[in-house]
Amino acid sequence: MGTPDFAVLSLRALVEEGYNVVGVITQPDRPTGRKRVLTPTPVKAEAERHGIPVLQPERMRRPEAVQALRELQPDLIVTAAYGQILSKAVLDIPQHGCINIHASLLPKYRGGAPIHYAVMNGDAVTGVTIMYMAEGMDTGDMISKVEVPIADSDTTGTLFESLAAEGAALLKRTLPDLLAGRIEPQPQNDAEAVYSPTIKREDERIDWSLPAVRIRNLVRALHPRPGAYTWWNGDVLKIWGCQLDGKAVHAQAASPSGAAPGTVLRSSETGIEVQTGQGTLWITELQPSGKKTMDAATFLRGSHISAGTVLGETPAAVGRSRE
């Protein structure tokens, strides 16, 4: 059971290791792109390449979906970023249980956005946990783990790829011992649980009063989607790349330049320097509303954003200032 690219490598690993994959369950095809073309999930596309039957129930909890799964008579269910919570009726079907490949070191970052939060919080390390599934949100007993370092240059996109590969490799190493009964699962300590809820629109907006380090981590965490944004000239301005000023990490004063957070201090072909609540941030890659992503030099050739401009003002605030 899986849906996005993260799960593809795990499915491929099962096939390469010679396991008899009797079926794949994934989310229904969804319309994508500007033309809203109905598109299969990456896992469905991979399953079809191997001739594996695919089921795409809208809700896995529905009796007809559970029955269709029961008819496949699986000995083990492997899930990876499937996108639906499984009912007890599903969990009870396979004799070896249901296991999940989760992109964090549980019990840290239970929930649907573990990679985003690891980057957003500036963690130095994350990893993958394979666990037995339970009725709660990522609460089952842990079977195996692998740690993965987070580089300063990592984004959610690059880390997503690393964790997908590490998860597939861990699955290969884990399954023989699991199926032979040679693993003693470890319960999670609920007192240490940290949750990573789905990213909401309000989480994507840059708060310039925060330290530059935290803003840069937010930009990294929301790359390649949905993207961190601010307001400029009454429109959304997405920030895709930025760098810390040399003094940003150690700056103690709230606003050493005397400028309010969000104020543009200077701009050049190498970037746009913006005051934050602690230190300054250089914007190097951005995307104005309705346009493609571009570097700072390209942006500045077509747009005027001078020192003293304040980013983050909402359209209503911009309207009042113009009046």
UniProtKB/TrEMBL annotation:
PROSITE patterns: GART (PS00373). Residues 2-173 form the Formyl transferase N-terminal domain. It comes from Paenibacillus thalictri. Attaches a formyl group to the free amino group of methionyl-tRNA(fMet). The formyl group appears to play a dual role in the initiator identity of N-formylmethionyl-tRNA by promoting its recognition by IF2 and preventing the misappropriation of this tRNA by the elongation apparatus. GO terms for cellular component: cytosol. Transmembrane segments: none annotated. It catalyses: L-methionyl-tRNA(fMet) + (6R)-10-formyltetrahydrofolate = N-formyl-L-methionyl-tRNA(fMet) + (6S)-5,6,7,8-tetrahydrofolate + H(+). This is Methionyl-tRNA formyltransferase. Belongs to the Fmt family. One of its GO terms (molecular function) is methionyl-tRNA formyltransferase activity. Its EC number is 2.1.2.9.
